[in-house]
Automatic annotation (TrEMBL):
Descriptive protein name: PROP1-like PPR domain-containing protein
Record bears the keyword RNA-binding: no
InterPro entries: Mito_RNA-Proc/Resp, PPR_rpt, PROP1-like_PPR_dom, TPR-like_helical_dom_sf
Cited SUPFAM superfamilies: HCP-like, TPR-like
Entry keywords, A to Z: Repeat
UniProt-annotated stretches for the region Disordered: 29-54
Amino acid composition bias (Polar residues), ranges on this chain: 37-53
Residue ranges of PPR repeats: 159-193, 230-264, 301-335, 336-370, 371-405, 440-474, 475-509, 510-544, 545-580, 581-615, 616-650, 651-685, 686-720, 721-755, 756-790, 791-825
Pfam annotation, one family: PPR_2
Length: 849
């Protein structure tokens, strides 16, 4: 395009004088007047949605085409007609016949046209035509700047109307990004965009799922006070929020619409009620429903009723849902399949299968017709009830209605049968669905897994053959399912046999195949076959990933062969066959720690860093835990320092490891300081952290602090476990506080926590030291009742008590019982028996547990 201000060939002087001073030739009746001045809060009119198509180019005034007029003289002529928009338009079209070049005269014309309501439509159409052209100069920044500068140059007030028409042109041309830019530029200028055009832009953003951008744009306009929106805006934003599953935001939009004086219509109420249902605010939902129906006299839609019915059923308020359904029907609105299915599900959940069937039969008679979801609900709940005949009946009804059950439905029904001690029904359904072609390879693979778990190897092989004959594989997933089930049931030999069969049929194993078998071999401590599978894997052309190698490393470490795992890791890193990450190193470090080889763990950590693998929180936590357990607190604190220097925050297990280390050393001040730091970091300690502190204070004889921590633990909503109660009872008994100790023990039993051997030993020890032999015997009998085998220490205490009471026969009987249970008497046992023969007795204690 030529420069907008370029001079054309100057016409004869007489023609220029006529151009500047003459009155318009054409009467205004040749151009239909139209008013298009939309109110910011008004709904769109027919003229906006269907722009006038009246010709805006004036016919040539002579039989010969006039030359282009000089731009500056056209501007002067237009300025002379600034109060006569129709005349200015005719003159501009005469001066620019058949062309659409945009210069300063064009923007001057726009300002002249928007100065009169009668010519607003002309301005809008001109801007629409220009934006729809292929000109590269239609970017908002350019056009908005032209509008502003031309207004200032020619003495016009900068008004919102032409900019809003420009915005409308962008939205009509579906240039949404340009429309957004236009709105942002208007906000910068302090010009309020017309709400109708704003809504169009927001709607376009929502349609393309740019919901956050739409909300941000609206929020920016509201924040500047330029546009508040109308009911249509509220509708749009509420729908967008509900689509995003953000009902709280939808309700906020509704509240703000009411605050700014919007009179809610049926749709606004409906959206608000739907939002209430999604936030489970049924009280508000009912309140809006009543207000809508009784106060505003608005019609409640089927969708609105259904939303509330579904929400009520989800909250197990089935009776209220039924009453609302009856109200809906009395209003002349039929129940849809969603509401009916929801009520059926509600009755089923309440074990009222009769009412569920009644609704279903009514649907069959009167409608709506049940769909696949309806049948799914009924089949699921009748399966749970064990009524397999009904399940088959529903299946046949689905078939009669032409509804094909989904593979998921078929799988669910079969699984319910198999898990519900009705495998014959499940197998029957599987055969039936297989014959009809509904059962796919997913269902077949699931059945293969179940057959393997049941040990039905022949049936498994038969199913594999059937799958092959029906063109359903079996594929690598089928064999993987079989091998996984066999490995989990510790039938490794059969899993390896299936693997060999798979190779014979040229079915290529994948990463999951090798990972499953290697893991199974290591868990069964079959190291020979584990290495055989690994060798086969390495000889294949499969691209093995880190997960498989990690499985090997993990298996070796669990088998106590962390050194071999480390050697493998070194080989992999050296050969660069696979990128080994932090997880494998963490496994090796943890393996060394569990093998009590802390120096090797430290060496593995250093090697990890040397190979460019960055330690993560798990690495540091594992290292700190190992160092603390090995009383190497200085190194553990160095790890903590290194971790913080890297900008990494300690998690609860990391704090727990350090706190436990200090507690075991009796440094409770340092442990308590870390405990406080943990809270300052916004973390919440778990049971393990509390147990470490309670144990530490118990070891120092500070039971007051231990009890305070126990109370804080309960206050923080944590559940005390067996270790907590054992530590507290032990400490209290050592202090001689028998009442409080047994109070905690009773509390523990009330929570359903069964005392183990350690707890029983603690109580027996404490009671023995206090001479409470009767209570010792009670505890001894309680252990037997709970199938907890007493240890040598407890037998010694009871035997010693019987000797002291003079029950020599019972004492020797218990000694024999001890031997029968495979317990080996220790030196204390023989000392008691020897002294018992001479009338002496001894109460045995335990220094520490």
């Amino acid at each position: 395009m030529r420069s907008l201000l370029a001079f054309r060939k100057i016409p004869p002087p007489f023609l220029l004088r006529w151009l500047i001073h003459s009155k318009p030739f054409c009467s205004q009746s040749r151009f239909p007047k139209e008013s298009d001045n939309p109110s910011p809060q008004a709904n769109g009119s027919a003229s906006d949605d269907n722009p006038p198509t009246s010709v805006v180019v004036v016919a040539n005034l002579s039989t010969t085409k006039p030359e282009q007029k000089d731009e500056s003289r056209v501007i002067d002529a237009l300025l002379d007609r600034r109060n006569d928009p129709e005349s200015a338009l005719r003159l501009y079209n005469w001066a620019r016949p058949g062309s659409f070049e945009v210069g300063n005269s064009f923007w001057l014309l726009i300002h002249i046209l928007v100065s009169s309501p009668e010519s607003h439509g002309r301005a809008r159409d001109l801007l629409q035509r220009y934006v729809s052209s292929s000109s590269p100069m239609t970017m908002p920044k350019v056009l908005v700047t032209n509008l502003v500068e031309s207004a200032k140059s020619f003495g016009f007030e900068v008004k919102a109307l032409p900019f809003s028409y420009l915005l409308n042109a962008y939205t009509r041309e579906r240039r949404t990004d340009y429309a957004v830019d236009c709105i942002n530029l208007m906000i910068e200028l302090g010009l309020p965009p017309y709400v109708r055009y704003v809504n169009n832009t927001l709607s376009a953003l929502v349609r393309r799922n740019s919901i956050n951008e739409a909300k941000e744009l609206y929020g920016k306009m509201v924040a500047t006070g330029l546009v508040a929106g109308d009911k249509a805006t509220a509708h749009l934003l509420m729908r967008a929020s509900l689509r995003e599953e953000k009902p709280e935001e939808a309700l906020e939009v509704f509240s703000k619409a009411i605050e700014r004086g919007e009179e809610p219509d049926g749709l606004l109420y409906s959206l608000a009620i739907q939002a209430c249902c999604k936030t489970v605010n049924l009280g508000m939902a009912f309140g809006l429903l009543r207000e809508m129906k009784e106060k505003k006299k608005l019609c409640v839609s089927q969708e609105t009723y259904t939303s509330v019915i579904v929400a009520l059923v989800k909250q197990d308020k089935v009776e209220e849902a039924v009453r609302l359904k009856d109200e809906m029907v009395s209003d002349g609105i039929n129940m849809n399949v969603i509401a009916a299915t929801s009520l059926i599900k509600g009755h089923c959940k309440n074990s009222d299968l009769g009412s569920a069937l009644e609704i279903f039969r009514k649907m069959e008679r009167e409608g709506p017709s049940p769909n696949r979801v309806t049948f799914s609900v009924l089949m699921e709940w009748f399966s749970k009830n064990g009524d397999m005949e009904k399940v088959l009946e529903f299946y046949k009804k689905m078939e009669a209605l032409g509804i094909t059950p989904s593979a998921f439905q078929v799988h669910s029904v079969i699984q319910v049968c198999l898990k519900g001690q009705r495998p014959e029904h499940g197998l029957k359904l599987f055969e039936e669905y297989s014959e009809t072609g509904v059962a796919n390879i997913f269902i077949c693979n699931s059945m293969l897994s179940w057959l393997c778990k049941q040990g039905k190897i022949d049936e498994t092989k038969d199913l594999l053959r059937k799958m092959e004959s029906r063109g359903l594989g079996p594929n690598v997933v089928s064999y993987n399912n079989v091998m996984l089930a066999l490995c989990r049931t510790k039938r490794l030999d059969l899993a390896l046999t299936v693997f060999s069969e798979m190779l014979e049929k040229d079915i290529k194993p994948n990463d999951y195949t090798y990972s499953t078998l290697i893991d199974g071999c290591f868990k069964n401590r079959d190291f020979h076959n584990a290495w055989e599978v690994i060798a086969q894997m390495n000889s294949s052309d499969i691209e093995v990933n880190e997960v498989v190698y990690h499985t090997v490393i993990n298996g070796l470490c669990k088998a106590g062969q962390s050194s071999k795992a480390r050697d493998m890791l070194e080989d992999l890193m050296r050969e660069k066959r696979v990128c080994i990450g932090c997880m494998s190193y963490n496994t090796i470090i943890d393996g060394f720690i569990k093998e009590s080889r802390m120096d090797s763990a430290v060496a593995a950590y250093r090697e990890m860093c040397g190979n460019g693998v960055s330690p993560n929180v798990v690495t540091y936590t594992c290292m700190m835990d190992g160092l603390c357990k090995n009383s190497r607190m200085d190194q553990a604190l160095e790890m903590r320092k290194e971790m913080k220097n890297k900008g990494m925050k300690l998690d609860v297990p990391a704090y727990g490891a350090l706190i436990d280390g200090f507690c075991k050393k009796g440094e409770m001040k340092s442990a308590s300081a870390l405990f406080s730091e943990l809270f300052k970091e916004g973390l919440n300690p778990n049971e393990a952290v509390y147990n470490s502190l309670i144990s530490g204070f118990r070891n120092l004889g500070n039971m007051e602090a231990a009890i305070d921590l126990y109370k804080k633990m309960l206050k923080d909503g944590l559940r005390c476990d067996l270790r907590t109660y054992t530590t507290l009872v032990d400490g209290l008994l050592k202090e001689g506080n028998l009442i409080m100790a047994f109070g905690l023990y009773t509390e523990m039993q009330g929570l359903g926590i069964v005392a183990d051997e350690i707890m029983c030993s603690v109580i027996v020890n404490g009671l023995s030291k206090m001479g409470q032999f009767v209570e010792v015997v009670k505890m001894f009998e309680e252990m037997k009742k709970n199938d907890v085998t007493p240890n040598v220490f407890i037998y010694n205490a009871v035997i010693a008590g019987h000797f002291k009471e003079g029950n020599l026969d019972e004492a020797f009987r218990l000694h024999d019982e001890m031997l029968d249970k495979g317990l080996v008497p220790d030196g204390v046992t023989f000392d008691i028996l020897v002294r018992g023969k001479y009338g002496e007795s001894q109460c045995i204690g335990v220094e520490s547990l």
